[in-house]
Specification:
homodimer, alpha+beta, 8-stranded mixed β-sheet, 5-stranded antiparallel β-sheet, 9 helices, 24 strands, about 20% helix
Chain lengths: ~375, ~375
Amino acid sequence: MSECYPYGVAVGRGGDGPPRVVVRVGDQALDVGPVATEMSHPLAAELSAPTLDPLLAAGPDAWRDVRRSVLDWIADEPPLTWLDDLDLLLPFTVADYVDFYTSENHAVNVAGILRPGRPGLQPNWRHQPIGYHGRAGTVVVSGTPVVRPSGHVAGPGDDDRPSYQPTAALDVEVEVGYVVGTGSTLGKPVPVSGFEDHVFGLLLLNDWSARDIQMWETVPLGPFLGKSFQTSVSPWVVPLDALAAARVPVPAAGSDLSPYLVETEPWGLDLDLELSINGEVVSRPPYRTMHFSPAQMMAHLTANGATLRTGDLFASGTVSGPDRDQVGSLLERWRNQRYLADGDEVVITATAPATDGSRLDLGSVSGRVVTQR
Amino acid sequence: MSECYPYGVAVGRGGDGPPRVVVRVGDQALDVGPVATEMSHPLAAELSAPTLDPLLAAGPDAWRDVRRSVLDWIADEPPLTWLDDLDLLLPFTVADYVDFYTSENHAVNVAGILRPGRPGLQPNWRHQPIGYHGRAGTVVVSGTPVVRPSGHVAGPGDDDRPSYQPTAALDVEVEVGYVVGTGSTLGKPVPVSGFEDHVFGLLLLNDWSARDIQMWETVPLGPFLGKSFQTSVSPWVVPLDALAAARVPVPAAGSDLSPYLVETEPWGLDLDLELSINGEVVSRPPYRTMHFSPAQMMAHLTANGATLRTGDLFASGTVSGPDRDQVGSLLERWRNQRYLADGDEVVITATAPATDGSRLDLGSVSGRVVTQR
């Protein structure tokens, strides 16, 4: 494994001391605020903040400047803190959260399950990244338990009356999320080519889903309470600069798209994801199969003039490959499907190619299912 | 007209001076921060903030305490500022924005237009308030121009290829929005009876919609770019306490609902809304016809354990009465429908019954359509 030196926010184990910006170095972390202050770095104030928000807002020149400095500081072998001695927090304030649906294998699988006998993909699917807004207020950091949600599900009678009960179909969605640094102006779309000017980095994301609640509510306004109870993210934000060796073209890069969606350079990513439940690997979704890139998602999100804000989070949607052991949700393993039981521990990890031919560790996002009290 | 003394945030005309909390008194405003400080009021710090956020977070006892004091201060005839000398700002930080769909007349009208020949309401509609998450980052204060959005709309060919173009179907949605003060705990639903503990007040809301963009994108994940370009709100937040004489039962208050949605006291509201375009009143939607109350919306929103946060905004959905001159969107005037043209000025106003038999002025939300540059 090589290092990608991602950014996070930590306190001492058990909540000791104020939150501080840290950079991961293997199984240790560097407190960057004190070093930046000692070095009179121009971003010392941003790096001494209790969240990544000021660094995110500082923009792409600052991000590159900080990254160069951080790599220098680490090369000098400064004192580090063991990760075991830290609690990692949600590293930034989530502004808006948007979830896309850009895996063709996932979309085809879901269509086959939910709408058997009707054509697979909707007419719009190949022409734009389909997405919707989720609940920013329930995005939580890895390790937060997920309380089994209750909600209306289809009832036992034939009178359309639902039952309000704990979900019997608690699922995961293996995703990659993108963190916006620089905001944009209302009424001005951001082009695909502006991706590196606006997006700071990525993280891993589990969009927990209650399929029975989702099924009952979803027509006509889309997913709502079947998703909004919790979304978990990894504590480490990997800067885009660390992913140079992972970049690949996406299937939808071509000229059959509307001009506002045509890729100007490849922002598909050759990430290997892994989903484990109770320590057993159940799936290995390949991110390189995703139909649209995050640069296309960003351009689509703003194509109507909607603003980006510092802290906006947008996610890929469930990552599923073509094979049965590559799907990113339990819904897609529908023949012998077992949804999550109370006590189940779910872990998503990922790696990416490094420039030296080894792999980068992109971190993990985990959560244990607990009973509603 | 009687006074409801709503809360807002203002600067001097043209952006002069720091933002400050104000209470509307007719066509003037009281700066409450300096008065509260002079009186050593326990909430003086909250009332001297540049937004309503600290007051919202202070909770229901504080809200009642402040309201009693404000009424006393106004009775003493303090110096006031003419509204003409102020610019009103978005008065609080919008956390999450949820839009419901709780007008039966609107839902039936839309179903008849969008799905002719298929049954009107979905099976879920009468059993719960249907809703979805919108974009918090594009909620703007009244007076902000709305830039005509572009987006994918159904194309002219028969090959499913969309056109990216400025919307030709820019619409309004006349709504009432509710502002959350007190947050809640992850995993713990908030009961209907907790409405006054968590919700501070209401405002008027125009959920601008691009119908052609919405139509193309909406299946299967719901409204997205057809809505997310802008949502306008009135600058004045009316505290719930001012609405005592407006409260009425809702049609869906009854025992045929799941227990978590049964009203414990009436939170339907007898508000008269009015939609004007270029100075001509085109519709008078009666809010009392709404099927679900805001207390039921709040309970539904958290029924899966999702948290409320200070600044959450949830809206009623388009308010439409049974008559053609009572609809809250242009979509519903579909025979001689004219969508908004560049330069059109849209104004929504509302009144409510006062305890003395007169009407309360709930303010207005306006916006002019401008061309995309």
